[in-house]
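wait is this the right file?? whatever heres the structure
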């Protein structure tokens, strides 16, 4: 029987990044992601949540970050990070260095960035569960 999906919804604030990083990494461990890959999951979730905090709600009140995690039929752990902010558009006045998505792409097995269901951005990341 497949493990229950993990779901988290938190305010898009800097304080919540560590919460998501910890809880999603714990979920990854519980569903069998190899210890050597847990650091990759931790880093990717941290970068994705940081992107939402820095970019999604600029010039307005912070909204929410939603994270869903589940093991797919092919054995991969899929983690989706969504917000209802400005969407996946480049930002010329970015307060960051622009390294978040390349960092995520370097540690995940697959990454897809798209527009969210209503608005905002949806970042999907896949990680092997085996060693």
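ok assuming it is, sequence goes like this
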């Amino acid at each position: 029987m497949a493990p229950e999906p993990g779901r988290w919804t938190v305010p898009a604030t800097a304080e919540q990044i560590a919460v998501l990083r910890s809880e999603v990494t714990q979920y990854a461990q519980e569903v069998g992601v190899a210890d050597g890959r847990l650091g990759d999951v931790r880093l990717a979730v941290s970068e994705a949540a940081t992107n939402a905090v820095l970019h999604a709600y600029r010039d307005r009140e912070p909204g929410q970050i939603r994270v869903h995690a589940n093991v797919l039929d092919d054995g991969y752990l899929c983690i989706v990070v969504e917000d209802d902010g400005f969407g996946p558009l480049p930002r010329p006045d970015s307060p960051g260095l622009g390294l978040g998505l390349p960092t995520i792409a370097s540690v995940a097995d697959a990454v897809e960035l798209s527009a969210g269901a209503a608005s905002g951005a949806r970042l999907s990341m896949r990680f092997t569960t085996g060693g």
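Residues 35-56 form the longest helix (22 residues). so i think its the right one actually
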